[in-house]
Structure formats: C-alpha cells, structure tokens
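The freezer alarm interrupted the setup, so I double-checked each line after restarting. Inputs confirmed:
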Amino acid sequence: MTHMPILPVILPLIGGFILLFVKKYGINTQRTIALAITLALIVISFFGLCLAIEEKYVIYLLGNWEAPFGIVLVLDKLSILMVLMTSILAFGALWYSISEDIDTKGAHFHVLFQLQLFGINGAFLTGDLFNLFVFFEILLLASYSLLLHGQGEGRTKAGLHYVVINLVGSTLFLFAVGTLYGVLGTLNIADLANKISMLPSEDVGVVAAAGLLLLVVFGLKAAMFPLYLWLPSAYGRTSAPVAALFAIMTKVGIYAIIRVHGTLFGYGAGELAYYHIPWVLNIGLITLILATLGVMSAKELRTQIAYIVLASVAVILVSVGINSQNALSGTIYYMIHSTLIAGGFFLLADIIIKARGNGDLNSQMPIFQNGILIGSIFFVFAIAAAGLPPLSGFFGKIMILSASLDNAQSGSILVTVLLSSLLIVISLAKTGSTIFYDTTPNVQPTAYKLSKSSMAAVIFLFSTGPLLVIFANPITDFTQILANDLFEINGYVKAVIDIYMEIP
Amino acid sequence: MEIILSLIIAVLTGTGIYLTLRARTYPVVLGLTMLAYAVNLFLFAMGRLNINMAAILQEGVEHYSDPLPQALVLTAIVISFGMTAFVIVLSLKAKGELGNDHVDGKESGDKK
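Predicted 3D structure, all chains:
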C-alpha cells in the first residue's frame, strides 16, 4: 500500500508541531522550515497527481480498517489537484508574508498556517463524511486565529461574525450527518452512494432533507447566496497573505458539493438523482448578480477583490449547476485560474495600499513610487480576473458558456455571466483609473519601498495565468478525463468498497 | 423515552436558535452551546434508543447497541468544547476592543 494519500495531510501537521518547538531558535529558522515544508508539499502533491493519473483511485485505509468500517483517504485526480493548488497558493502567500514581515506581527503565524494547510488538505483527501466534518473544524479553527492574526481595524468584529456563522454551520453539518447515519447506517461517502441507490421510497424524503442541509453547510463555506455576507468583511479586513490563502477556502465548499453531492446524488440515486442541481444553478445565478453589484459598489480596494472572489465562486456554482461533463471540465479549469489569480490579487492590493497610503476608492492620493510597474501588473490581473482574452479567465468562461448552450436555462446563464463580466470590467477600469490616474500632487507619497521579493511572490502566483493558457490543451484534456471520472460514480464506489452499484 | 428525548432536543434547538439571533455576544455564545448540546443528543439518538444492551462483544449476547454514534458524539463534544472556549475568548476581546458587547460593535442607537 502506497503512503502517498496520507503525506499531504501529515506533513503540515508534523511541520506545525516542529515549528512550535523551533520558536526559540528565532524567526529565521521558522521561516526556513515553513517554506521548506510548503515547497515539499508542492513536490509531493505533484507526484501524487502523477500517481492519480496512472492509477485513477488510490485508497488509503487508516489503521488498516476495511472500508466502510474504518476511515479511508481517497486520492483521485480532483482531490490531489485541489491539494496541489492549495500548496502553490500557500507557497506564494507564505513568501509574501515573510518578505513583508507580516508573520512577526503576532504569535504563531507559521504554526497556524501549517495547521490550516493540514485541515484543507485533509478535507480534500478524506472519503468519509464525519472525517470531512472534523477536517472542516480543524481548518476553521486555524482560520479563525489566522483571520485575527495581528491587529487591524474591524478585524475583531469581522472575526466574531465569521466564527459565529461557521459554528452554526458546524451544528447544521452534524444534524445532516446524524440524519444520514440514522437512515443509512454508514458515513463512508462511497457506501452512502451505494445505500442511497437501494433506498426504500419511504426514506427518500428524510435523505433529501439531509442532503439539502449539507448543501446549506457547503454553501456557507463556498459563500453561496444568502450566506455570503461574512465573506467581504472577513477577506477585506484580514492581512493580505491570509486573505490570499482564504481564496482556497471557498473552493473547499465547492469541492465538497462536487464530491459529496455529486457522488451521493449522482445518476445511481434513483428518485434523488441530481435533485440538488436546480438549487445550485439558481442560487449560483443569484449569487453572481449580487456579487457583481458588490464589485460595482465597493468603496475599498480589498472589499472589491473580495467581491470578485465571490463572483468567481458564483460562476463555478453556475457551471456545477449546468451538470454536464463539459461544464464540469470547464469548472475545474476556471477553479485553478480563479483561486491562484485571486490569491495574487489580494497580495497586489496590499502592495498598492501600502504604497498609496490607503485603499479608499473615493479619495485622491499621490502618485507613488514604481507606479508604472505596479499599474501594469494591476492591469494584467484585472484582465485575468474579469475574464478577458488572452488570459486564462477567458478560456475558463468560454468552456463554461459553451457547455451551457445545451442547458434548458442557457438564456439566463449566458445573459447573467456575460453581463456580470462586462460590469466587472467597467468597475476594475474605474478602480485602476482612480488609483493610477486620478492623483493629487499636493500630498506627499508614503515612504513605502517596494521589495523585489514581495513583487516576485505576486508574479509567482500570477504566472499561473499565462501558464494555464500556454498549456491549455493538455490541461483541458486532463480536466475532461477528470470530469468523466466524476460522473462515473461506480468507479469511485468500486474502488473504495469493492461493490458495483446496481443502477435501476 | 423517544418522546421525552425528542422534546428535549426540540426545546434545546429552539432556545439555541432564539439565543443565537440575539444582539449581544453573551446570549449568542449561550445559544451556540445549546445548539451543540442539542446536536450531540441528536447524534446519540441516531444509534437508536435502547436499554440494557451490551456495547462490547461477548459470548452468548445477540443484540448490541451501536457504538459508532457514541464515538461520533465524543468527537463532536470535544470539538464544540474547544469552539465554545474560543468564541468566549473572542467575545471578551471584542468587548474590550469595541467597548460594548453588541455583536456589531455598536449600540443600535449609535449613528456611526
């Protein structure tokens, strides 16, 4: 049995503890170790991806207990791809926090950062619903502390709201898990799918209710309407590297919807097959409209970027709601793009705010140093985030929109997505001209000195944009196979519990 | 027994939701605790309610109580304990920083 599936989970856990013990050797030792662990995570998850392409499903039995009795970790293309994305994003964020000295603003930044990675990677790799809950709690607890890390205006208030709403979400998760266990007697995702395919019709209603309750919980993580109000204040108020890392947190919710709902309520689920899809699609459309309004009305640069993250989440929800193989393939492509670009965008916003003095979009501020360099990078980020050619956001949206043509609701999907892209382009153009053109000579610029290392971290995350375009062909081939695997639920169930579901 | 237990869960959930929707942090924390109690009882009941059933394998015993929900409840209790501790500390910090215990950090009459 290969130990590959456990490595991305256990490495940050052990790393976190090591970082706690080396604290007395100074911040530089901590920084070196933290960077080394994150770099190792990238390498490991890359090899894991190669393994997943070769073997499709790698099952890891914890404590060697047979599934469905023990907890399993499942490494497949989707889960390890998400882990790889997390590692790359984490590396960029960590790099930036070190070069801008953000990690010294409070205690235990590096420890919390590794524990956050532990939670996120675990949530991606687990094959058990209760274990997913546990990993959610780990990543949430680390995220609460990271959110509040260092002092900041309004950070405590935003943190309190974030913590309370997520605690309520955890309670709902447990109610849903309890209901599913009470009816089906298992919590292994593959076994649940198998049991649901044989569900007697009198239990359908209860399982449907539990499934929708789970959708609420995952929707809360993914910031789905009407549960998105925590996102702009939390992302806008926390420190830049944490906001960048949080760009993956909304994708944890989306991943959970694709993995849990896609497997449990796939084509084998009889009466319940794809019953969650209309909810995801319509709520996605509403979220997209509200996110676009948020982008247009934001008065602060980081709040605006937080709403752009929300808009990208909404596009992903819509394309999950289209529910076809091509749409899902586009979803994965767009997800890689939007996560890494949004992460980089938060870092760039931090540089702009430091150089300019503030992120207020209604005030005139002086011309700052390196304005041309920062402005050009802002320009390309804006192109990527808004989904204009020639960068990756455009290709992702094209894939999703062309897949939506077969859908019954193609009209409303096309209109909403295209209009929202247009309005986001206009808002970003206005933001750019406010920051870089509408300047006042009367005020002295801040003494902020742009460090090459911080800029390199931003460019590191941004480079995924062009790379996704250059390697678009192999990547889309990969996402097509991935989407095919996701729809072929029997492969997953067979790999985990060695049972072929009888599809009625 | 079923009726009593379901009534307890219902009352706990109801008070929990009511308190969580209050505007002060202290009732909110209490409400979250109530919700956690309710969900723990609920999880426990999902292994079916029964009396005088063995939990450990023995010879000559045919009926066992389901051990899994008990394990789940243990995990859930630990997690909700930790979370409650965290949210209490956080609301104390908020009270100290913002000067009052309103969840929005300002009294409803305040203009700012």
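Quick read of the result. The mean pLDDT of chain A is 89.
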